[in-house]
Each structure stands twice: as C-alpha cells, then as structure tokens.
Here is the input.
Amino acid sequence: MMIPADLVLLDGNIISMNPKMPSAQAIAVSGDRISCVGSNQEVKQYIGEKTRVICLEGKTVLPGFIDTHAHVVDYGKLLTWLDLYGASSIKEIQTRLAEHIKRVGKDKWVLGRALNPEELLEKRLPLCHELDAVSSDAPVVFYCQMGQVCVVNSKVLEVAKISQRVDSGIERDLMGEPTGVLRDQATNFVWNIIPEPDEQELYNATKLALSNFVQLGITCVHWIVLSEVELSIIQKLIETSSLPLRVYLIVPAGLVDLALQKLKRFENGFFKLGGGIVFVDGYLASRTAALFEPYTDCPSNQGGLLCSQNELFVFADKIQTAGLQLIVHAVGDRAIQEAVNIIQHVGRNSNVPCPRLEQAAVLNQQLMRCIKELDISVSVQPCVVDSEFSVWSAEKRLGEKRVRYLFPVKDLLNCGVLVSAGSDCPMEPLNPLLGLEAAVRRVGVQNLSVFEALQMYTVFAARAASLDFVDKGSIEQGKLADLIVLSNNPLSLPSDKLAISVSVCFTVIGGVVCCSKN
Here is the structure.
C-alpha cells in the first residue's frame, strides 16, 4: 500500500536537472524528502486525507537555488540602509531621507544605497547643502548604484575632515569647498569612520537578510564569514532554530580554530561548517589582483600577493587538517598560479569536497588545464563578471589578449571543470535570476545557455560542496525537497527578459512551503 505524502505538487512544468528524467508533471514529498517524481497520475497515488495538494497550473518547478558566494551579515547591514533605487529627482531623495529619519531617529547615521544620478530629473548627484536641508545634524552618506562614488552632507564632511584633505576624488566648487561628492579612494575617508552596528543589531539584520534569500528561491547559501562576530550570530541563529535555509559556512583561515570550537557541534541538516578560505590577492577593480604582467592602463602596477607561499601553505594545510574544504580566493593569473601550486603541494583530502577557487578571473589555457587535472572547482559570480566589463572597464585594465580569458566560464565548462555560481552579495545583487540573465546575455564566446547557467546555481553548486552529491541540486526521488516554483519557464524566455519576466511564487525547503513576496 502506498504511504501518503505530506505534500503533492500537481500540473507543473518540472525541470529536474536530472538527465535520467529531465522533465515531469508532479512531485510528492514525504517528510523532508522527495518520494516521487513523475506524471500527475503517478503522483496522485500518494495523495491521502492529510496530504497538502497544490495545483501549479503549469508553473515551473526547479531545484532550489544554491548561492555559492554571499556575505550574509554585510547584506543584512545593507538592508537597514535607505533604499534610493528608482528615485526620480533630488526632491524625492529629500522626501525619502526625511521619512527615514522620522522612523529611525535624528541621532543615527543615515546610510543610503542605489543612488543613480542618470535617473534623476536633474541628471546630477545631490550636493551636501541639499542633504543639509533635510538633516544637518545626523550624518548622511548615500552610495551610488554604479562605481565607487558617494555623496555626503556637511556633518560627514566635518567628521571626516574632508576640507583638510588633498585628494583628486574630492569634488570641490569654484570656491574650493567640498560639494559632498566623493569618488574612488576618497570614499574611504568616509567608509572608515562609519560606526559598526552592535551585535544585536547585526543579528536582527541577518535574520532579515536570510528571509530575503528564501523569498528569492535560495534554499542553500555558502556563507562566507568576514568577521569574528558573525560566528556568534550564527551560533545564536542555530540555538534559536532561526535558520530558514541551509547554510554551508566558509570561514577565513584565521578563524578556523574558533569556528570549530564554537560551531562544529551544531552541524545538522541545516548547518555545516564546510570550508576554510584563504585570500591570495585582491580585485581587478582596485588593481590589487596579482598579475604576471602589469595592468594595461597602469604599467607600473601588477598587483600583489596578500600572503607568502609559505603562509599560503600553512593556511591550506591547516584548513585541510581541520577537515574543511580548501577554498582559495584568487583573481589574477599570478595569484591563481600560486593557488594551483599550493593545492598541488598540500595534496587532496579525500574526506572533503575538492578544492575550490573563488573567482579565478584572469586565466589562460595552461591554468585551465591545471585546474582540470587537479580536479579543482571554480566558483564565479555572474553579476561580478558583468560589472567588470560594464563598470570597471576590464578591457582597458587588461588589454584585448588577457580579457579574452577573463572569467572564461564557457571554456571551463567545455573542458570539464565544475563551475558553480553565486552572487557576491551585497557587492552585487542577490537575486539569482539576475545572475542567470548576466551569464546568458554576456557578449562574446563565453555566454551560456539558460540551462547551463541553471546548472551552476543548482546541480553544479551542490556538487561543489558535497562528496556524495545525494541530497541537493536536482529533483529526484530520495533527495531533499528543496524546490522553487517560478511564474514562468526561464528556458522559454529571451535572455534579456529573465529577471523581469520570472518571479518566485514560493519556495519549499525540506518539504515546508515558504511564502515569498511575489
């Protein structure tokens, strides 16, 4: 006799990411596992008196998205900022600022995001006196949507002592006084003095962030820790059963011992202390990625390594000895070569997933062969790739020859390298649909099909953090019931319509239906 399921989804367009059964109509879920995938007729046999039945009316079902690179606490902090997206005039910005101060009080720093002068009626950034008209007491800092640019009020100019500084990034009026607009490195004068939230504020912000992950169809996140306080926040989330999605935690090498001490005992189906990360170099945008040859637009600079070969070996050995996946942040070709050398030197820990490179931006044929031969996976962030070209002028920085192999995702996939995808949120948008669109509409030979991009957010992402690959990433009998229901089929839409034409109707995590905004 068939045991009734707890949840049944009928009349759907199931894209399983399982080559043995690529598509289906219906899914039955018992407990936190998928008990049947097949036709409506096959799955209806699992319906009992207490089974929750949802008719999807042709909506598309995918495995839950897995974001393999996100900074959760920083994203939470960003969500507490004033959202300036879509503001159409400086007057509207002033109105939003006044409303925000009314909600949070006059004594707190006001941080804003997503300011876009091109969308404003005035076609320019607001100036400090225009922000002062609303708030001259509370420090106000608004960051632009594109580029390293911010605008501040007079209070911030005073606190940061901007008028006393000499920097080309400080915009000044005809009288030589700062206008409040700061660009490039000058923005650090302000960033470095913004006070950090306390632990309770960070905890509340993190809970809000995780809720957003679920609403966007993300059922598992590879959470990259940047500070010690995050470990306490994660511990509290676990102890209060407040993790709404699965977390694969990645900690810096310097926090491995503390993370093991505080968190290892909490591992369960929703939480795993999975990886340790080493940062070998910086980023292309700031010209701190380590290159073999100088930057084309700055011949005196070729970046630099953040640690010596010996330090890198010690960190890598420590991570693997602790039973964690070795993850190396390496952007430039010189840094990637160092990472490959160390991975080869320390050997493979067969008890953990294969070593992984984060970003691996500037590659060449030889490096790609080494990555394949050593069974190293690569984690990329498609929106980061898009920004390198559209915001940071990648071709100008690297030249035509090197830019051909900048984030060569298609080449990596074609030669059999496991490539997973993430957001690098909050530096880039969290929404996986935006990442899918960026990967698909990329200009040139490295653009992907929608299906290939989906693989990087599902089945490949699951493999990147698993030895046996039995739990996540595809819709199959016996796997975890981590699913997303989409309003439209992304495989049937134009590449530039993915993010605006598809929304997440609801998310299922471990068989539990979670409602979304949409």
Notes: The chain has a mean pLDDT of 95. Residues 199-215 form the longest helix (17 residues).
